[in-house]
């Protein structure tokens, strides 16, 4: 099974897939329609800037997951930037190390851009991120739930 990681900027044809995943996993029921999420994903993928940047893992040329490098992700903490955001692996492809591959791609992009640290927040994957070097900084109540706010210090670029 050959693996490849591409960006939606390189493969605009993947935007409908990543937008649907982002909407189903993170935005559904939050007041944004699938069309709005798709428009934002399309605009973000077409930008020449460093963020947002969405990475897609392909297995046998089929998309199975995504993760993004984003300037902002948690509206309660606009002071923190940039973020590892929108990590998602399709249910049929889980438990194969794909999330770790996607996180590594985002971290490598951040290192290449000289980013000293990344942030994320999670309600369900704190143990996964801790295993790969992230540390919990605090817990944050948000939208009637409690999330772990995590940080990853990155090495300086070579």
UniProtKB/TrEMBL annotation:
GO terms for molecular function: acyltransferase activity, transferring groups other than amino-acyl groups. CDD domains: NAT_SF (cd04301). The keyword Acyltransferase applies. It holds the Pfam family Acetyltransf_1. Residues 12-155 form the N-acetyltransferase domain. It comes from the Bacteria. The keyword Acyltransferase applies. Keywords: Acyltransferase, Transferase. PANTHER family: AMINOALKYLPHOSPHONATE N-ACETYLTRANSFERASE-RELATED, AMINOALKYLPHOSPHONATE N-ACETYLTRANSFERASE-RELATED-RELATED. This is N-acetyltransferase. It comes from Methylobacterium currus.
